[in-house]
Design brief:
The structure is a single chain. By secondary structure, this protein is an alpha+beta fold. The chain contains five helices and eight strands. The protein has two domains: 64 residues, Alpha-Beta Plaits; 53 residues, no CATH class. The protein is globular and about 55 Å long. Strands 1-3-2 form a three-stranded antiparallel β-sheet. The longest helix has 13 residues. 31% of the residues lie in helices and 22% in strands. The protein starts with 5 loop residues before the first strand and ends with a strand.
């Protein structure tokens, strides 16, 4: 079929696919997620069916790939807020590919096991590039 959508990427996890779809939508590129509902209902199916597929029209493929391959910006400012955001960097390798887990899972699960559903915030950051962990004040 000539109007068949092109699969750009496959994502194991639905949140990552939704973020990519949102990036395309913000640039005016129409896309859809194939098998989204199947994986939303039961995540275990993701590995079996090959994950969530992000698809676009053939004429939008090049622009969509270029947009999704763009590097993460170091900073940005929001006009409404008036404050700029600077992406944290890894102190070891200077990568922008860092994440903050949000909660200390070990302590949070332990407290939940005791019957106290209280999330304990984490102070550690993790670099996806080199594996370094650090505490950022």
């Amino acid at each position: 079929m000539e109007n068949e959508p092109i699969t750009l990427y496959r994502y194991r996890d639905l949140p990552e696919a939704v973020i990519a779809q949102g990036m395309l939508a913000s640039a005016g590129i129409e896309s859809f997620l194939r098998d989204e509902n199947t994986i939303r209902m039961d995540w275990m199916w993701s590995q079996l069916i090959g994950g969530v597929r992000l698809q676009v029209a053939a004429e939008d493929e090049e622009a969509a790939r270029e947009l999704l391959a763009a590097p993460m910006p170091e900073s940005y400012s929001a006009e409404d807020v008036g404050e700029a955001f600077a992406q944290p960097r890894c102190p070891v390798c200077n990568s922008l590919d860092v994440k903050h887990p949000g909660i200390n899972k070990a302590w949070s699960y332990f407290l939940m096991w005791l019957g106290i559903p209280f999330p304990v915030p984490s102070k550690r950051w993790h670099c996806e590039s080199c594996g370094a962990e650090w505490v950022d004040e």
